[in-house]
Amino acid sequence: GAGTGAPAGQDAEPPAPGRVLFPPTFSVSEIKNKQRRHFMFLRWKQQQRKEKLALRKKRRKEREALGDKAPPKPIPKTIENQRVYDETTVDPNDEEVAFDEATDEFAPYFNRQTVPKILITTSDRPRGRTVRFCEQLSTVIPNSHVYYRRGLALKRIIPQCIARDFTDLIVVNEDRKIPNGLVLSHLPDGPTAHFRMSSVRLRKEIKRKGKPPTEHAPEVILNNFTTRLGHSIGRMFASLFPHDPQFIGRQVATFHNQRDYIFFRFHRYIFKSEKKVGIQELGPRFTLKLRSLQKGTFDSKFGEYEWIHKRREMDTSRRKFHL
């Protein structure tokens, strides 16, 4: 068949049935027939996998033979551990960072002067999926209230929220019935973050989901928010939840930042014994990507932006992250 066998001019041994020998210069893309090309590509991938597995087994045997004298395992290269150094990475012991934290807009929350009270709203005339997402989000964030917009402009909602002691406003936007954006505005003085939202999974779409969440205040876990910008976003998420988690509820909300994508998960711990613990996902789940951070409350016309994601300028390296 096309692309199989040994290079011309050599007395090749007949290949074993089921094993394809690809010549060193072979390229699957040279095969003109699409089905044949696809088939050969799958065979090539299969062969690559077998070779990789054989090499892994060989290495494992060598390590077992050497026992304690085996060299330490090499650390695999990943995009994260090859990350380009960011000069704004936060040192928790830095005096400047401590001063900023003591004086920023979230300080009243962290000093326990305010109790979070959240308003969750939508874009105009939301459809079923967005409505259900907002309702489920309100069961994750304690002391949150869902309000449907009915054509009211955000500029007019914000003063009403401040008058009624709301500390944060969450707006879930949608496109073609699918939730695709989230605006988080800290009241009364900002800042306001705009996120792109994707991979939304509602509770009923999660496999092996547990019973619905209880009304206990969950524990909050923030992972990998290491730069100054990431630090601000992490504090913003933290200030949505009550200070003191009720551990008796065993619920945990996780914001995990990986390569500037923020993955949200909501779990319950299940203690099987004193040493074994399992987790059960409760939902919903979604992924956020920061688009901009604005000083003050929502103002699309005259707002002053602290940070805007500019793809052409900022995404020059796959190993450069901003959070």
Q: How would you characterize this protein structure?
A:
This protein is α+β, with helices and mostly antiparallel strands. It has a domain at 91-315: Brix domain (Rossmann fold, 3-Layer(aba) Sandwich), CATH 3.40.50.10480. It is 26% helix and 24% strand. Strands 1, 2, 3, 4, 5, 6, 7, 8, 9, 10 and 11 form an eleven-stranded mixed beta sheet that branches. A hairpin with a 2-residue loop joins strand 3 (168-175) and strand 4. It is globular. The two termini are 52 Å apart.
Task: Give a brief rundown of this model.
This is Ribosome production factor 1. This protein is of the alpha+beta class and 323 residues long.
Helix content: 25-40%
Number of strands: 11
Query: CATH superfamily membership of the domain at 91-315, which one?
Result: Brix domain
Shape: globular
Name the structural class. Answer: alpha+beta
Q: What is the H/E string?
A: HHHEHEHEEEEHEEEEEH
Helical element count? 7
Major sheet characteristics: 11 strands, mixed
Which CATH top level class of the domain at 91-315 fits? Alpha Beta
Second-tier CATH architecture of the domain at 91-315: 3-Layer(aba) Sandwich
Our Rg estimate from Cα atoms comes to 26 Å
Q: Regions with pLDDT < 50 over 5+ consecutive residues?
A: 1-10
- What is the end-to-end distance? 52 Å
Content of β-strand:
15-25%
Mean pLDDT: 85
The CATH topology name of the domain at 91-315 reads Rossmann fold
